[in-house]
Model the fold of this input.
Amino acid sequence: MSVDGGTLNLSNDDQPDYIDNVTVRNSSGAGIQLGGGNWGNDYFLGPNVVLEQNQYPLALGDGDLLPGSHVPPTGNVHNYIVAPVNWDRRGPFTWSDAGIPYVIAGAGLAQGDGGWRLLPGVTVQFEPGAGIVGDMQARGLPGKPVTLERFDPTQAWDSLRKPGRLEHVVVDGSQYGLIYSGTGPASYIDGAVLSHNARAVVGAAIVRDTQFLNNGVGTNVGFPTDLNGQTNPNSFVGNGTGVETASDARYNWWGDPKGPTSPDNPRGRGDSAAAGVPIKPFLTAAPDYSNSAPIATLHAPFFLVEPGQKIMLTWDAQDDGSIVSQRVLFSPAGGSPGDYTVVADNLSATQRAFEWTVPATGFQVTNMRASIRIEAVDNSGKVGWDAADLMIPSGEATGTITITSDLRGPFQSGDQIDLCWTATGLSLAATSFDAFLFLDGDQRIVPLGGLAAPGCLSLGLTMPFASTDVARVGIRLYGTSNNVQWVFSNYFTVRPDPRVGDAPPRSPCSAPPGA
Done:
C-alpha cells in the first residue's frame, strides 16, 4: 500500500494490528497517525514500513507502539514521533523504544487515562510548558532508563502530575518536576536521576536509590519513611535546596562527608535540609550507583480474587550482583510501606513462584484495594520490588445474579446482542450494577455501561472486531469500597466476518515417543 501527499490514519478498538508493506511519502503532517477508539490500541510496525519526506514519521493519539516495531530513524523533516498535548488519550497503552524520541507537542498537560506505560529505553521530550497528567508508569532498567527531558534545551517543560510507579528514569529540565497527590497511598520513585529541575519532587512519594542533582529544590515531600535511604540511599548534590520538607531523610548522601547544611547539623557543608527534617545518621561517602537494586517483575494475577482462594504468584528477578533472599508481603488496603505484613520470608534466591491463600479482609473503610508485593534483596542489601493491586470482596455484597442473555456463541464481529440479567436476595451493602466485556487472551476489559437495578443494557453488547475463543461477560454488583460481587458468563467465541479470511491458526501437537 502506498500513500503520497497524505496521512495514513489508523484506528483500532480491539486487538493488536500488524502494519507492514506500507509506504507513505510527502505528508504535510505525520506519515502514519495511530489513533483509537474506546480504549488503548496496539500497533506493531513491521520491517517493510517506509516513511519518507513527511513532516513526522508517526503521530500518536491513544494508539501505542509495541516493542520491536520498526520506525525509520531518518528521512523525514522531523525525525521524532509527535504526540500533541490536546489529544484525548484513553488507555491502557504503551510506548516502547522506537530508536527516536517521542515529543509531547504544544504547551499544556497531555491527559493519560487508564494506564500509560513507558518501557525501557524510551525518550520523551517535552516542548516548553508541556507535561503529562494522569496514571503514567515509567519503568526503565539499569543502563536503559526512561528519559524525560526538554525538547528545547533553553526552555523548561512543565511537569508530570500524579504519575504512578517510576523506576530507573531520568527527569531533566522541568519547571515543577514530579507532583503527587496528598491523598491515598504513596507513589514510588526508585533508581532515578532528577536533575536541572526548578523543583524535582513535590507530594506523597517514597523515594529510594535516587540522585537529586543541580535542582532548584530537590524535594518537598511528606509521607512516612519518604526519603529513608537505609537500604537504598539517595543523594542530594548541587541543589539550591536539598530537602524542604520530609518525614524521614536519614541514611542519605548530601555531597559532603560532614552531612547536610541544617540547623540540626551545625557542622554540615553539604546540600541543605530544613529544620526538623530527620537527617541523622547520614552517609559520609557517596553511594555506588553502579550497583543497582534488583529488578523484580511480578506477573500480575487476575485483579479479582476471593477469600480462601489459592493462587500461584510468579515473578522474575535479576540483579547486577547476586540476589540472596526474597519475600512476599501483603497489604489489605493500599500499597504504602507501613501497610504491608510479611507473608513469606527468606525465600531462596532462585525461587520464582509461591502458592498463596487469599485472606478475608472484610470491608475496607479506606476504599483502597489490597496489594500483593514481591521483594528481592541483593548481596549489598539493596531491595528491589514489584506489586499488584487486588480486589478482595468484603463478603457483605450478596445476592443471586443470573445472566439471562444467550451468550453461547459463536458470534461474529459487529453482532448486536441483548445483554440482560436478573437478581434476587440483594443485601443492602450493594445495589447497583455494571457490565463489562472481558477479552482474557488480550488482558483487556471493555466497560459496557451500568444499571441501577437488574434489567437490560439500553445499547446491548456489540461484539468487538476481534478473533478470540476467550471472551466473556462479567456483571458487577457494587456498593462502597470492596463491597462487590461478580458473576461471569461462560467463555464464548468471536470471529471476524469469514470473508476477511482470518481463521484461527492450527497448532497440531503430537505426543512424544513413548508417552
The chain has a mean pLDDT of 91. The longest strand covers residues 468-479.
